[in-house]
Fold this sequence. Notes:
Elements: H1 2-11, E1 20-27, E2 30-37, H2 47-58, E3 69-73, H3 79-86, E4 90-95, H4 100-111, E5 120-123, H5 130-133, E6 143-147, H6 156-166, E7 174-180, H7 184-196, E8 197-205, E9 210-217
Parallel strand pairs: 3-4, 3-6, 4-5, 6-7
Antiparallel strand pairs: 1-2, 7-9, 8-9
Amino acid sequence: MAAEAQGRRNIWEPSVYYALGKESFYFAGHDISIRESMDTHGALIWPGAIALCRLLENNQQQMNLMDKAVLEIGAGTGLLSVVASLLGAWVMATDLPDILSNLTFNLLRNTKGRARYTPQVAALSWGQDLERDFPDPSYRYDYVLAADVVYHHNCLEELLKTMQHFCRPGSRTTLLWANKVRFQSDLRFTECFKSSFNATLLTELPQQEVRIYKATAKEL
């Protein structure tokens, strides 16, 4: 029994930690505690996620998540998915396989007994096996959330392809993307993003250098 319990516990434990920290937040009427891992970019909280959480909380009439299907790509620590869950959404949080254990831990810890729906977790590598793992129209969402997914990496084309897969013409899916501008590659991606979607700049936070866009698919 002890070994069985240990095995169950290890399911939710990240495999490697070089350093560990906790961040505390207050959103949607709840204290939220997020565990971070310093061994990967995906296990840290970035300013775009905090800004988008605040936007969702402060604009619930315009962006009502109650009973909506929400997908987060590049969910990282899960803060944004936690807040979406607490605002009443059915949430699917996705990231690379090595991120999922800490992501799941944070989601369950902060939504159990609080959220209308239990958030789900799935592996998603941008641009890979999208039709196989998330076939349309079986996987259609009201909102797709992305926060600080654009930084200095080599997967920007795959990221755009992933956004387009989940935000298709005629799907009524709204994409909300928040990002801190760090590199010239961020600006180049933004131009590609604007040419691919009907995009509106919702807000810009000059001190944090964070921009939040709302987008829908361009009709064919």
